[in-house]
Design brief:
By secondary structure, the protein is of the alpha/beta class. It folds into 4 domains: 7-239, no CATH class; 262-443, P-loop containing nucleotide triphosphate hydrolases (Rossmann fold, 3-Layer(aba) Sandwich); 457-653, Rossmann fold (3-Layer(aba) Sandwich), CATH 3.40.50; 667-706, no CATH class.
C-alpha cells in the first residue's frame, strides 16, 4: 500500500494551511507566477510596488518606483549583497528626493505596525536565471519580498535535514538570486551546525526543522504539536522582530559572516529590554552557559536599548574583559549596526565621557572605574551590561561602579552558574536580588546540550601513579581555594604559585615522561583518527616547555606547539593540519573558541569557574563538509580533580554534574559499550566499511578492513 504521507500531503499542505489560519495569504502557483512576471522573477512585483508607494509617500513615486525595485533586484549574489538586502528591508537604504534636496530612507516593511504589511505564502516556486533552474517547496513573502524558503522532505526520509541542506546549498551555488533569507537558519551560512530546532511558545522542543517533518507514528511529532510549531514559528510580529533585530552580519578573520540569534538569546534580549522599562526594578542576572553566544546577546541587547525611543537617548555601558575587548567582535561593532561608540582607553577618558553626559554606547573594562567619583552621572536612563559578572564586580571595583552611577540599571552576564553556596550572596546579591530564583534568564548546560548549542562532556581519570596524591591536593589546593576563593585564571595561578609540593610532583622528570608517553599514544590511537585536535594543559610555563620536550620523543616535533598567549588568527590557524596538540597553561586556555578541539589532557589543578571555562573549549559542536561530526568533548584528567565532582564543580548538580559524565562508569558490559583508553566506542563506525565499533581492532572508526 502506498505511503499516504508524501512531502506534499504531510508537510507542504499543513504548513500552508496553518499559515493561512494565522493571517498569511496563500497564493496559488499560477497566480504567483503571474505576480513574478515569469520564472525569472524574484518578487511579487505589483505587491512590492504597491507597498513601496504606500509606505513612502512623496519619497517613492510612480516615476521612481521602478528604479527602486531595480536597485534591490540588482544586488550582488554574494553575502555582501545579502547584507545590503537586509539593510533595504530594515529601512537603511535611501533615494534622493529632489523636492527635499536630500537622501531619505526607504521603508520596505512597516515594523511598528504588522497589520500594515502584506504576508503571503506560495508553493513550488520555480526559478531560473538562464543557466540553472531550481524549485523551492514553499516560499513566504512580506510585501512581495521572499523572506523564508522552506525545503520539505518525506516523512520516512531518514536524512531529511541533511538532504534539504544539500539542496539549499545547491540553490546558493546555482541560483543565488533566489536566496534572500530563510529560517530557522540563514542563507549564506549553510553549515549544518547553524540550523536549529524550533521551540514553540509552550517551551517544548519538538523534533522539527522547517526543512523536514515526520508524523507521530514514524518517530516525529503529533499533528497538534506540528500546528502549534508552524503557528508560533510564522507569527507575524515575531518574524518581523527577527528581521529587524536578530539577523546579524559581522566580520571574523576579515570574512563577512551571517548568523541568526537563537531563541535563548532573543528571550534574554527581550527580558533585558522589558526589565529596563520597569521603574521599580534595576538589576538582572543572565546565565547563559559557555559557548551559547553570550557576546552576541549582549551586543544586540545594547543596540535595542540605545534605539528604544522610551529611553530618550540613553547611555549604555558594556563592561568586558580584555579577551573580548581585543577580539574582532568588539573591534567591529559597527557591523552590528552601531553607527558610533566610544572605547574608553583610560580611566580619565571614561570619567570624561560620563561627566560630559555622553549618550550612546561606551565599551570599557571594569578596572577603569577604580577611583571614579561618586554620582558622576545620576541619570536613570543609564544601562550597564557586565560581562563575566561572577568576578568583575567583586570588591572595590563593583563599589566604585555603582557609586558612580547610582540610578543606573545593571545587568550581569555570566557563562558559568553561580556557586550553590553563594545563593543570596556575591553576584546574586548584586544582580539577582530582584528575581525569585536569582536569575532574570537562565540557559543551562543541560538545555544547551539538548539544543545542540554545546556537546556533552565525558571524562576519565589517568592511572593512579600519575594522579596527584589526594592529601597533597587537599592541603595545597582545595584548602587554599576554599579560604581565598577563585573566580578567574589569574587568581588560580597565584594560589598555584604557593603550591610548591604539588607543582614539584606535577613537573617531576619521571612523571612528565610517563604523562607525555601516555598522551602521545592516546592521541595517535584515539583522537587523531577521529580528525580532531587536543589541548595539553600544564601547571605553568615551565611545565609547558617540559612537555614539549617530552612529547617530541614520541611524536614528530610539528605535532605539538607550546602557546603561552593568544595571537591574531589563532583560531583560524587551528584549521590547518598542524600542530595537532596545543600545550597551554594560562590565558589561551579560556580564550580559544575552536570547535575542532575535542580532547583536553588536564594536568593543572582547577576548580569551579576556571575549570568549567577550560573544559568548555572542547565541547563546541563541530561538523565538517564530509560529515565528520564531533560526538562530545573529552577530558583526560591527570590531576585527580574529577575524582570528586562535587568539590571540583560546586554548582547545582542538576546544572552541571548531570551532563559531565565519567565514561568509565557510563559504559558497562551489559550496555554493549566498549572502552578503549577512556573513549566510549559504542556508536562509532569504520570510515571505510561502516562496520560497528565493537568490531574495531585498534582505533575508533577504523577496523581490520584498512
Amino acid at each position: 500500500m502506498p505511503n499516504p504521507f508524501t512531502e506534499h500531503t504531510a508537510v507542504q499542505k499543513p504548513i500552508l494551511k496553518y499559515a493561512g489560519e494565522i493571517g498569511w495569504q496563500i497564493v496559488g502557483r499560477d497566480e504567483a507566477l503571474t505576480l513574478r512576471n515569469g520564472e525569472t522573477g524574484l518578487f511579487f512585483y505589483p505587491i512590492l510596488e504597491q507597498k513601496l508607494l504606500e509606505l513612502n509617500p512623496k519619497v517613492v513615486t510612480r516615476e521612481n518606483v521602478g528604479d527602486v525595485i531595480k536597485r534591490i533586484q540588482d544586488l550582488r549574489n554574494t553575502i555582501e549583497g545579502n547584507k545590503e538586502a537586509l539593510e533595504w528591508m530594515r529601512g537603511k537604504k535611501s533615494v534622493y528626493v529632489p523636492s527635499e534636496r536630500r537622501e531619505i530612507n526607504v521603508r520596505l516593511i512597516d515594523f511598528n505596525n504588522p497589520s500594515n504589511n502584506i504576508f503571503q505564502a506560495t508553493e513550488e516556486w520555480q526559478y531560473t536565471n538562464g543557466t540553472f533552474s531550481n524549485r523551492a517547496d514553499v516560499v513566504f513573502l512580506i510585501n512581495g519580498i521572499p523572506i523564508i524558503i522552506g525545503e520539505n522532505k518525506k516523512p520516512e526520509e531518514k536524512e531529511a535535514i541533511s538532504i534539504a541542506v544539500d539542496q539549499l546549498r545547491r540553490y546558493h551555488r546555482e541560483t543565488p538570486e533566489l536566496v534572500i533569507e530563510f529560517y530557522y537558519g540563514v542563507t549564506w551560512n549553510l553549515s549544518r551546525k547553524v540550523l536549529f530546532k524550533w521551540k514553540d511558545d509552550a517551551g517544548t522542543q519538538p523534533p522539527y526543522s522547517p526543512f523536514s517533518y515526520q508524523e507521530k507514528g514514524d518517530g516525529g511529532m503529533s499533528s497538534d504539536k506540528f500546528e502549534r510549531t508552524i503557528k508560533t514559528f510564522f507569527n507575524h510580529e515575531r518574524l518581523l522582530r527577527v528581521i529587524h533585530d536578530y539577523v546579524i552580519f559581522f566580520k571574523r578573520e576579515d570574512e563577512l559572516e551571517k548568523i541568526i540569534l537563537r531563541q535563548h538569546q532573543t528571550r534574554a534580549v527581550e527580558k533585558v529590554v522589558n526589565r529596563s522599562l520597569e521603574k521599580e526594578k534595576k538589576t538582572g542576572l543572565i546565565w547563559h552557559t559557555q559557548g551559547s553566544g553570550k557576546t552576541f546577546t549582549m551586543i544586540v541587547a545594547a543596540e535595542r536599548l540605545i534605539k528604544l525611543a522610551e529611553f530618550e537617548k540613553p547611555t549604555v555601558i558594556m563592561l568586558v574583559d580584555r579577551n573580548e575587548l581585543e577580539s574582532q567582535l568588539f573591534l567591529n561593532l559597527e557591523a552590528y549596526g552601531f553607527e558610533s561608540y566610544e572605547l574608553a582607553n583610560s580611566k580619565k577618558h571614561l570619567q570624561d565621557l560620563l561627566a560630559s553626559d555622553y549618550r550612546g554606547l561606551i565599551v570599557s573594562m571594569i578596572h577603569k572605574f577604580e577611583g571614579m567619583p561618586r554620582d558622576i552621572n545620576t541619570r536613570a536612563n543609564v544601562f550597564v551590561l557586565v560581562d563575566e559578572a561572577h568576578r568583575t564586580t567583586s570588591g572595590d571595583l563593583g563599589n566604585y561602579l555603582m557609586a558612580a552611577l547610582p540610578n543606573a540599571t545593571y545587568f550581569g552576564f555570566t557563562g558559568t552558574p553561580i556557586d550553590k553556596i553563594l545563593y543570596g550572596k556575591g553576584t546574586f546579591k548584586v544582580f539577582g536580588k530582584e528575581d525569585e530564583h536569582g536569575y532574570l534568564d537562565k540557559y543551562s548546560i543541560a538545555e544547551s546540550i539538548e539544543d545542540g548549542t554545546t556537546l556533552p562532556l565525558n571524562y576519565t581519570l589517568a592511572r593512579n601513579e600519575m594522579l596527584v596524591p589526594k592529601e597533597l591536593l587537599e592541603k595545597e589546593f582545595y584548602a587554599m581555594v576554599e579560604k581565598e576563593g577563585v573566580s578567574d585564571i589569574e587568581e588560580l595561578n597565584k594560589i598555584l604559585e604557593r603550591a610548591v609540593n604539588t607543582k614539584n610532583f606535577l613537573k617531576s622528570e619521571d612523571r612528565v615522561e610517563k604523562v607525555a608517553k601516555f598522551v602521545a599514544e592516546h592521541y595517535v590511537q584515539n583522537v587523531e583518527p577521529m580528525g580532531y585536535k587536543a589541548f595539553l594543559v600544564g601547571v605553568d610555563r615551565e611545565a609547558c616547555a617540559l612537555y614539549k620536550t617530552a612529547l617530541d620523543k614520541h611524536l614528530p616535533p610539528e605535532y605539538s606547539q607550546v602557546v603561552y598567549s593568544p595571537a591574531h588568527n589563532d583560531t583560524e590557524k587551528l584549521k590547518q593540519t598542524l600542530p595537532k596538540i596545543l600545550i597551554v597553561t594560562k590565558k589561551l586556555l579560556t580564550g580559544y573558541d575552536a570547535p575542532i578541539l575535542y580532547c583536553m589532557y588536564l594536568d593543572k589543578p582547577m576548580k569551579d569557574h576556571t575549570l568549567l571555562q577550560a573544559i568548555a573549549r572542547v565541547n563546541r559542536p563541530y561538523e565538517d563538509d564530509d560529515g565528520l561530526k564531533k560526538p562530545s568533548g573529552f577530558v583526560l584528567d591527570f590531576v585527580g580533580i574529577f575524582d570528586n565532582m562535587e568539590k571540583a564543580l560546586a554548582f547545582d548538580s542538576a546544572d552541571v554534574a548531570s551532563v559531565i559524565k565519567n565514561c568509565e562508569t557510563e559504559a558497562h558490559p551489559d550496555s554493549g559499550d566498549e572502552i578503549q583508553m577512556g573513549i566510549v566506542l559504542n556508536g562509532w563506525t569504520c570510515k571505510l566499511c561502516e562496520r560497528p565499533a565493537q568490531e574495531a581492532t585498534e582505533i575508533p572508526r577504523l577496523c581490520d578492513c584498512a
